[in-house]
Design a protein that fits this description.
Number of strands: 11
Oligomer: single chain
Largest sheet: 6 strands, mixed
Number of helices: 9
Structural class: alpha+beta
Helix content: 25-40%
Strand content: 15-25%
Shape: elongated
């Protein structure tokens, strides 16, 4: 009777590792080393499929054991990202523009170390957003974009050198705007209340918290992120959330944020729309979010082009229903 050869054992070992990591990722813990496994669920599915094909071709008698373990890994990961696959039902219908006053939104992590300022400026001019939210902006970025930002009557900024600076600009009527130390003193959250020409008002929340880190607990961070959406300063029902969450939409943290704030995600049933890393989004993950609540609807959304950052921009057309007379 033939035994499993070394190639077979090698594929079995790879299958064991991938299945173990997939199962460990289900552990409801705040340990960063476990939480980061959420980020790689989609590429892990592709890797498991590739290894299964290779096992079928080269693993010999051990192939079915290896393929079974790799299938378990893929199924566990797919079950978590299922709502963001094309097979799942959409929870938010794209609204026709005539249902409300619409505005264009551009949310983009520029990458602080990226010095291709002109490419981002050209992107802003091309999109011509009514609401602009940039993250990882320091003083150098603020200075480089002055000409572009001068087109906006309302600009608020908090340049920081720790990769958590922010720039917010809008041509809409701005009732209030503040940067609040919600998730951390060094990672401020933007809260703004805006009014459209149809008198519809909505609150904008702009986030860029720290990511979970191996060896650290994310409990405090997770609690603050959840609170950032459920308690807006002016308490309006209409809310738009944008920004780099440093988190994926199927994680416990972002799921809690979405559920506690009653937000809807336009990506459900349409795909993950990975935005990081920009040159390899096929194997990346969706760190940048766009969520809406109540009378805020999404008419269209897309990923923008690669303009030198490690993130792709998110571009959306958002409509807000006029108040009932």
């Amino acid at each position: 009777m033939k035994t499993i050869g070394w190639k077979g054992w090698a594929f079995v070992a790879l299958g064991l590792v991938m299945a173990a990591l997939a199962l460990i990722s289900l552990w409801p813990t705040n340990r960063g080393i476990v939480r980061v496994l959420d980020f790689v669920r989609e590429p892990a599915i592709y890797l498991a499929a590739l290894l299964a094909v290779l096992a079928l071709l080269f693993a010999g008698r051990g192939k079915w054991i290896a393929i079974g373990l790799l299938a378990l890994s893929a199924l566990v990961n797919f079950a978590r990202i299922w709502p963001y696959s094309f097979l799942a039902p959409a929870t938010l219908a794209l609204a026709p523009a005539q249902e409300g006053q619409c505005l264009k939104v551009l949310s983009f992590n520029v990458k602080q170390a990226n010095h291709q300022y002109d490419r981002t400026a050209a992107l802003i001019r091309a999109v011509d957003p009514d609401v602009l939210f940039l993250t990882e902006t320091n003083k150098a970025w603020l200075d480089a974009l002055q000409d572009t930002l001068s087109r906006y009557p309302n600009v608020r900024s908090m340049p920081l050198d720790n990769r958590y600076g922010k720039i917010f600009a809008t041509r809409l009527d701005l009732e209030s705007a503040r940067m609040i130390a919600n998730t951390s003193a060094n990672t401020p959250t933007l809260y703004a209340t805006l009014r459209l020409p149809n008198d519809a008002r909505f609150e904008l929340v702009g986030l860029h918290p720290r990511p979970p880190r191996p060896g650290e607990s994310s409990e405090s961070r997770d609690e603050n992120i959840a609170r950032a959406g459920s308690r807006t300063p002016d308490g309006l029902e209409n809310v738009l959330v944008i920004g780099d969450f440093n988190d994926v939409p199927w994680s416990r943290t972002t799921t809690r944020f979405r559920e506690q704030g009653d937000f809807l995600d336009p990506r459900t049933g349409r795909g993950t729309f990975a935005t990081f890393p920009a040159p390899y989004t096929v194997l990346g993950w969706p760190l940048d979010q766009l969520l809406v609540r109540s009378g805020v609807n999404v008419a269209a959304f897309e990923r923008g082009p690669d303009v030198g950052s490690d993130h792709l921009p998110l571009i959306a057309t958002v409509c807000v229903k006029a108040p009932t007379p």
